[in-house]
Write a structure and sequence with these properties.
By secondary structure, the chain is an alpha+beta fold. Helices cover 46% and strands 13% of the residues. A four-stranded antiparallel beta sheet has the order 1-2-4-3.
């Protein structure tokens, strides 16, 4: 894999507030009272969650953290009253470019084709192209990307909000495509499930295993 130049971020007050909020929730989940501040502390906490937990346990713990950010009654009302129509999906895509910039970096809206539950093809501007994912770049770990971000985030939006979401990371350039309104496929059917370790980025990369052993372990 070619070397990717490290991106430098200058977090504003809004970014720092969200980083602190998520970090505090994650610290509570792993029982840590002291942790590094800032984005690096957030990534370190993610690595703490991975230690001693298999892939399923990692996903479940992240799901708990995500659900703790939104009151259960609110999730129930959204899931019950809101249907994933074109406007809802496009609105979620727009909000994600604003609310998640601290987490994944810059992103833009793009038009996509989705397949509905009724197998109908629908064009809508509910795609989000993340230029270079900050989380993947800082962690350098395929397993962390999949089990700490992709799978629990897809599940949270699809099941807790009732708004389908599919995320497709690109491990060559660290970009990622999010598609609101598209039901996520089984991981085993995706290219991400076969992705080897990022040799130039992950400090614990395996040169023998393919795919990355942390995807399923």
């Amino acid at each position: 894999m070619k070397t990717i130049e490290k991106t430098v971020y200058n977090d504003n007050l809004f970014d720092r507030i969200f980083i602190a909020l998520f970090s505090r929730k994650m610290a509570q989940a792993v029982g840590k009272k002291h942790y590094l501040k800032g984005y690096q502390g957030f990534v370190d906490l993610s690595q703490e969650i991975m230690k001693g937990r298999n892939a399923q346990q990692q996903q479940e713990l992240v799901s708990i953290v995500l659900k703790s950010l939104v009151p259960s009654p609110v999730l129930f009302l959204i899931r019950t009253l809101v249907t994933p129509n074109k406007w809802v999906c496009e609105s979620n895509a727009w909000f994600s470019t604003i609310l998640f910039q601290w987490l994944v970096g810059k992103s833009t809206i793009q038009e996509v084709e989705i397949t509905t539950k009724n197998n109908q093809i629908r064009k809508q501007k509910s795609g989000v192209k993340i230029e270079k994912c900050r989380y993947l770049e800082d962690s350098g770990c395929v397993g962390m990307c999949i089990n700490m971000c992709k799978l629990p985030t897809q599940k949270f939006f699809t099941e807790s909000f009732g708004i389908p979401l599919t995320m497709t990371p690109n491990f060559e350039d660290f970009s990622c495509e999010m598609v609101f309104g598209q039901y996520p496929p089984d991981l085993d059917t995706e290219e991400a499930s076969k992705q080897p370790c990022l040799q130039n980025h992950c400090p614990t990369a395996s040169t023998f295993s393919k795919p990355c052993p942390k995807i399923y372990d």
